[in-house]
C-alpha cells in the first residue's frame, strides 16, 4: 500500500524542507529503523537520510536546490515509514539574504550557490553553543554587531583551562555521571543546536561545525569506530539540509591520539557519501610549536580529493602563497593565534597583530579566522564561550572585509616584495599591497605597461583610505608615510 | 750568508709584530718575489707569509700568541730577503683591553684567546671604509658611543642604490677609468684599511671583513680564479696578524653568479692554510624572499669543517634553535633586515622589531647583527656609509648586551613556549624568557625541583629591570604586565 500526501509541500530554494512522520518507539529506533527518501527533479534524484527525533517522531529533511516541482518517496525498514510519496514545490528565495550554501569557486575562493562571492571572515567560539541560554543570546547579539560571517564551533563540549562547567545536554543520550549510551542520541541537544545554526543563518554566518576535537572529559574523543560513524551518520541526516553548514572534521585532529589517518579518511568518505549537498569539508591541524616555523609537517593531506579547502592552524601567514600552490584549493587559516592576553602562547596577540594576520593572509588570496582570548573575571572568553568581544581587531577586520568585498578575488601577485609586503591582485587590473609592521618611506613600483592606475593609500589600522594624487603608470615612485600597517590599493583606470 | 738582527724585537702578546725589509723593486715584486718567515717557540713553528708593500718595502707580520722568546728566520725567492734571522720577545699585554683574537668556545659561543667571553653584538656598515676621511672619522665617533663590538665591512667598495660615489683607492692598482692591474695591489689602500682595522680595535670592535660581494661596477666580483686567489693570499699576508679580524668570505655569496661552490670551498681552504692564527671564518648568504620562510635552502653548507660559525641572513629568528642543532656551531644572524624606513623591503624595520630580533636570537643562544637604513638628505645611510646612527634600537641593544654579559652563555631551553616566547638558559641555573610582541598577563612556569629562584621582570623596550616579590620554586604562576617586549630572567638563589 502506498500512502500519498495529496497536497504538495512548499519550500524556498536552499531552505530546509522537513517531513515529520509518526513511527515506532519500541526498541532503539535510532539504530533499528532505517529511513531515507529520494527527491526527484526531472531525471535527477537526490537521496537523503532520515533520522529519529525521539518520541515516535521520524524526520526527513531536504534542501532543494532547483526551483520547480520535486517528487519524493520514502524507503524504510519499517513498513509504516516506507513508500510514502509526495510533491515538493521549490519556490524562489523570498529573502535577499538567501544565496544558498557556500561552494568553492575559482579554485582558491568561495561563492554562494547563486554566484554571490563569499569572502570568509571567520571567528572562533568553540563551545559557545554549550553555555546556556543567557550567554548564548549574548554571543548572538555580539555576532550581530561583528564583521564575522563564519564561526568555528563544536558539536561536543570543550574540556580545557577556563572550560570546567558541565553542559546541560550532549549529542548522545546520558551524562558524565551516568555514562553515555553510544547507541542513542539526545534529540533535545540536537534541536537546540539546530536552533543555534538557524540563528547564525539569520545573521548571515556560516557554521564551520567541528565534528571531533581532543578537549574532552566525556569520552567523545575516544569513542569506538562504530560510534564515530554512527554519530556522523546521525549528524549528517539532521544537519546536511542546513544551508549554512560547513563540515570541519576536527579541531586539531592530530591531538586525537587514538584515531589513525585511515579513520579521518573514512570520516571524509562517510560525509562525502551521505551529505546530499556536498557542503564544504575540511580538517584542522594542531600546531606543534616545536616545529612551528616549518610549513606543513605532520598534517592531514589537504590535497586529498574529498578535502574542499585547507583549514590550517599556523602562526606564520607568509606560507599562504606556498600552500595555495601546494594544494590548489582555498586556504583558510583557521587559527593563527588569538588576540588577547592569555597565559597561553597561542592567546596573547596584540590587536594590531591579529589584524595584520588578516591582511597578510588575505592580500595573498587566502582567508583568515579571528579569535579572542582576554582574561575575564568570570572566565568568559570569546574563543570558547562567546559572550562579548573585548578586543580591538574586529573593527579593522570589518574595514578589511569591506575592502575585499569592493575588489576582485585576489591571486598572489608577483608585483611585489615578500621582504616586507604581502601582495595580491588580478594581473594588470588590480593590486593590493600590504606592508604590515614594515614602514617604507616610498616604494618603486613597476606597473604593467599600456595602462594607467589610480592608487589609494590605506591605513589599515586607522581605517582610512586616501587617494594619492595623479595617475600612475609603468615605473613609478609611490610615496608612503613610513609608519606601520599601510597598504596600497592599485586599480586600473 | 745569514744576516742576523743582533737586538731582539719586542711585541706584546696578540699585538702585531712587523718586520720591514728593503728589497728589489724591479719587475712585479707582488708576483715575482716569494717571502715568508717561520717563527719558532720551543718546538712550535708558525709559518707566516710576507708581502710587498710598494717602494721596495717587504713586510713580514706576526701575531705572537705565547709569552716568551721566539726566534724567526725568513725564506725568499730573492737572496736579499732570504735567511734573515732574529728574535722576538713576546711580553704580556699591557692593555686590559687586549684579550687576543676571538675563537669559538663552548660549541655555540665565542671567547677571546685569554678566555674572556665575547658576545658578538654586531652592526653593519659595508662600505664605511670607502667614504673618505671625514665621514670615516664620524663613523668611528659613532661607534665609540654605540654598543657594537663587531662590524661587517667590505674590502671592495659597494655599487648599489645610494652607493654611487667613486672611492679614492682600491685594493688593486688602477681605477675604474684606467682599468685595474690584476697582478698588482695598491699599498696605500691597504695601509688605510689597516689603520681602520686598528681604529676599530682601539674601540674594542671585531672587523668581520667581507672578502667578496656582488655589488660591483669595478670587476672585483668577477675576477679570474687566479686573481681571486692572488688577492686572498695578499690579504692574508697583510691582515692575518690583526687580532680583531674575522674572515667573512662573502656578503651574499649566492649573488656572485660567476662563482661556483667549489670556488668558495677553495677560498675557505686557502684561508685555512694561510692564516697562521685561524681567525674565525664564515660565509653569508643572500636571502631569497621567494623562499623567505623556509629555513636554509640554497645555502653554503655551514657544516663544512672550515666554517667556524654560521653567518646567516634570514628575517625569521625563530629558526635559530634549528640552526644550532643542525650545525652545532655558533649561529650569528648577520642580517635580519635593518631598522629604518628605506624603500627596500630589507630596510624598513621599526626599532622595536630590530631590538626584538636581537632578543629572539640571543634568548635562543644565537647572536644577531644590527643595521640601520634611514633615508638621509645626503644619502648617508649607516648600513653602507656609516656616519651617524639615527635610530632607536642601539640603546635597547646596549641594554640587552649588559644583560647577556651579566649572565651565563645561553643554550636554547626547553623550559618554555615557542608559541610566544624565545627562551634560553643553563638548565637548572638560569633562564631568560623573552615574549616579544606577545603579551601574556601571566605565565605558569615549572621550575626545576629542589631549588629556589628569583625572577626579574625585564621591560626590554623601556629598559627596566624589576625584581618580582618573593622566591619561586616548582610549579609557579608568574605575573606579567600584559604588554609587549617583556622578558623574565630567572636565577637560582
UniProtKB/TrEMBL annotation, chains A, B:
<dbReference type="InterPro" id="IPR017853">
    <property type="entry name" value="GH"/>
</dbReference>
<dbReference type="Pfam" id="PF16586">
    <property type="entry name" value="DUF5060"/>
</dbReference>
<dbReference type="InterPro" id="IPR032260">
    <property type="entry name" value="DUF5060"/>
</dbReference>
<feature type="domain" description="DUF5060">
    <location>
        <begin position="11"/>
        <end position="76"/>
    </location>
</feature>
<protein>
    <recommendedName>
        <fullName>Collagen-binding domain of a collagenase</fullName>
    </recommendedName>
</protein>
<feature type="domain" description="DUF5605">
    <location>
        <begin position="419"/>
        <end position="490"/>
    </location>
</feature>
<dbReference type="Pfam" id="PF18310">
    <property type="entry name" value="DUF5605"/>
</dbReference>
<dbReference type="InterPro" id="IPR041239">
    <property type="entry name" value="DUF5605"/>
</dbReference>
<dbReference type="InterPro" id="IPR013783">
    <property type="entry name" value="Ig-like_fold"/>
</dbReference>
Amino acid at each position: 500500500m502506498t500512502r500519498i500526501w495529496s497536497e504538495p509541500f512548499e519550500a524556498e530554494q536552499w531552505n530546509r524542507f522537513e517531513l515529520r512522520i509518526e513511527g515506532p518507539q519500541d526498541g532503539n529506533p535510532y539504530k533499528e529503523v532505517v529511513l531515507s527518501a529520494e527527491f526527484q527533479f526531472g531525471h535527477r534524484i537526490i537521496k537523503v537520510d532520515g533520522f529519529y527525533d525521539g518520541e515516535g517522531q521520524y524526520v526527513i529533511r531536504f534542501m532543494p536546490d532547483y526551483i520547480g516541482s520535486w517528487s519524493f518517496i520514502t524507503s524504510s525498514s519499517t513498513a509504516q515509514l516506507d513508500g510514502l510519496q509526495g510533491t515538493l514545490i521549490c519556490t524562489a528565495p523570498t529573502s535577499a539574504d538567501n544565496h544558498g550554501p557556500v561552494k568553492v569557486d575559482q579554485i582558491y575562493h568561495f561563492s554562494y550557490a547563486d554566484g554571490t562571492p563569499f569572502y570568509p571572515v571567520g571567528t572562533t567560539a568553540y563551545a559557545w553553543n554549550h553555555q546556556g541560554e543567557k550567554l548564548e543570546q549574548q554571543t548572538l547579539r555580539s555576532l550581530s554587531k561583528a564583521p564575522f560571517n563564519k564561526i568555528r564551533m563544536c558539536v561536543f563540549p570543550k574540556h580545557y583551562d577556563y572550560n570546567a562547567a558541565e553542559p546541560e545536554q550532549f549529542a548522545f543520550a546520558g551524562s558524565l555521571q551516568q555514562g553515555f549510551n553510544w547507541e542513542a542520541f539526545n534529540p533535545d541537544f540536537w534541536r537546540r543546536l539546530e536552533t543555534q545554526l538557524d540563528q547564525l543563518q539569520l545573521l548571515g554566518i556560516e557554521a564551520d561545525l567541528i565534528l571531533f576535537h581532543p578537549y574532552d572529559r566525556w569520552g567523545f574523543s575516544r569513542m569506538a569506530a562504530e560510534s564515530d560513524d554512527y554519530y556522523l551518520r546521525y549528524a549528517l541526516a539532521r544537519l546536511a539540509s542546513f544551508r549554512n553548514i560547513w563540515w570541519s572534521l576536527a579541531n586539531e585532529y592530530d591531538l586525537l591520539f587514538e584515531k589513525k589517518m585511515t579513520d579521518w579518511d573514512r570520516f571524509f568518505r562517510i560525509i562525502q557519501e551521505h551529505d546530499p549537498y556536498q557542503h564544504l569539508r575540511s580538517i584542522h591541524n594542531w600546531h606543534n610549536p616545536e616545529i612551528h616555523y616549518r610549513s606543513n609537517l605532520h598534517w592531514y593531506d589537504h590535497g586529498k580529493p574529498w578535502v574542499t579547502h585547507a583549514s590550517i592552524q599556523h602562526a606564520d601567514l607568509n606560507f599562504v602563497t606556498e600552500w595555495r600552490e601546494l594544494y590548489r584549493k582555498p586556504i583558510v587559516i583557521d587559527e593563527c593565534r588569538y588576540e588577547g592576553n592569555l597565559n597561553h602562547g597561542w592567546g596573547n596577540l596584540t590587536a594590531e597583530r591579529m589584524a595584520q594576520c588578516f591582511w597578510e593572509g588575505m592580500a595573498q588570496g587566502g582567508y583568515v579566522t579571528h579569535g579572542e582570548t582576554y582574561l575575564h573575571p568570570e572566565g568568559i572568553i570569546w574563543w570558547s564561550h562567546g559572550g562579548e568581544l573585548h578586543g580591538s581587531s574586529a573593527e579593522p577586520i570589518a574595514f578589511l572585509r569591506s575592502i575585499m568585498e569592493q575588489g576582485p578575488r585576489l591571486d598572489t601577485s608577483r608585483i611585489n616584495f615578500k621582504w616586507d609586503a604581502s601582495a595580491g591582485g588580478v594581473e594588470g587590473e588590480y593590486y593590493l599591497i600590504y606592508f604590515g609592521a614594515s614602514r617604507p618611506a616610498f616604494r618603486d613600483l613597476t606597473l604593467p605597461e599600456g595602462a594607467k592606475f589610480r592608487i589609494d593609500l590605506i591605513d589599515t589600522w586607522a581605517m582610512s583610505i586616501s587617494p594619492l594624487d595623479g595617475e600612475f603608470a609603468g615605473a613609478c615612485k609611490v610615496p608612503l608615510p613610513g609608519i606601520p600597517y599601510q597598504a596600497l590599493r592599485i586599480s586600473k583606470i
